[in-house]
Amino acid sequence: MEYMSQEGYDKLVAELRQLESVELPRVREAIAEARDKGDLSENFEYHAAKREQSRLLGRIRFKQRVLEHARVLDASLLRSGKVQLLSKVEMTNLANNAQMTYMLVNPHEANLREGKISIKSPIGEALLGKQTGDVVEVRVPVGMLKLRIDSISI
């Protein structure tokens, strides 16, 4: 079972609909056009379209499985005392006093540009269960980070 926000769930549903209603018919049309051109054994367009269809069907199945096991969390029922899924955490990097704010989300919703990091990322895992004022050491690819949690909100 995977917990996620309503926003993340809705986004996944929209992506799945796009794949099923727009992308898949486009690829099927490309296969039909390539098939009409004759000999399939040496038809590059046909083989490329079939590979694209296979890739697309894999993505559709994956998204269907994620949605099948997804549970939407009601953010109003969450408490803001400890870092948890859907927590917005303001913290300071103690090495350079840089301020950061991230929201901890399901891996399928993670988007660094939007300030959303996965609870399964090194920083996300280190923050889970911590409280305001706690100092967390995190091993990341560039070395060790020392982060102080300044505030937690939902």
Describe the overall structure.
- The protein has helices spanning 6-35, 44-68, 122-127, and strands at 2-4, 70-72, 88-93, 98-105, 116-118, 135-140, 143-153.
- The model has no long low-confidence stretch (mean pLDDT 90).
- The chain has a five-stranded mixed sheet with strand order 5-4-3-7-6. A two-stranded parallel sheet has the order 1-2.
- β6 (135-140) and β7 (143-153) form a beta hairpin.
- It contains three helices and seven strands; from the N terminus they run βααββββαββ.
- The protein has 154 residues and is α/β, with parallel strands linked by helices.
Secondary structure elements and their pairing?
Elements: E1 2-4, H1 6-35, H2 44-68, E2 70-72, E3 88-93, E4 98-105, E5 116-118, H3 122-127, E6 135-140, E7 143-153
Parallel strand pairs: 1-2, 4-5
Antiparallel strand pairs: 3-4, 3-7, 6-7
Helix pairs in contact: 1-2
Key traits:
two-stranded parallel sheet, 3 helices, 7 strands, 154 residues, single chain, elongated
Helix and strand run: EHHEEEEHEE
Q: Output mean pLDDT.
A: 90
Rg result? 22 Å
Tell me the β content: 25-35%
Distance between the termini: 21 Å
In percent, how helical is the residue content? 25-40%
Low-confidence blocks of residues: none
Number of strands: 7
Number of helices: 3
The 3D shape can be described as elongated
- Judged by helices, strands and strand pairing, the structural class is alpha/beta
Strand order, biggest sheet?
5-4-3-7-6
Largest sheet: 5 strands, mixed
